[in-house]
Amino acid sequence: QVHLVESGGGLVQPGGSLRLSCVASGVTFSNQAVSWFRQAPAKEREFVAGISRDAYKIEYGDSMKGRVTISRDSAKNTVYLQMNSLRPEDTAIYYCAATFALIRFSVYRREGDFGSWGQGTQVTVSS
Known about the structure:
Blueprint: E1 3-7, E2 10-12, E3 18-25, E4 32-39, E5 46-51, E6 58-60, E7 68-73, E8 78-83, E9 92-100, E10 116-117, E11 121-125
Parallel strand pairs: 2-11
Antiparallel strand pairs: 1-3, 3-8, 4-5, 4-9, 5-6, 7-8, 9-10, 9-11
């Protein structure tokens, strides 16, 4: 059973930065592809960024492309999401999700691809 815990959210002013962390346990992390999603109030959950199991491939969603960087540290079983130039419309709960990846360069973008989710971390961008 994969257990994911996000952290790093909070209140930040427009233009500010945050780094979210997703720590995994209960799994061979090097076999897992991981993605970040977000869900704003009254909106559907959307893909933000994804990274293949050994960081061989990375993909970004359109909403934050150019302002976010996803990375992973397998020694720490952690995936990071560095977010810069934050805007009020980035306010949402951010979730990480993990799935077993047979192929090293697979990145997953759909919610249904994932069986394991964290509890989410709130990001609020406001002055």
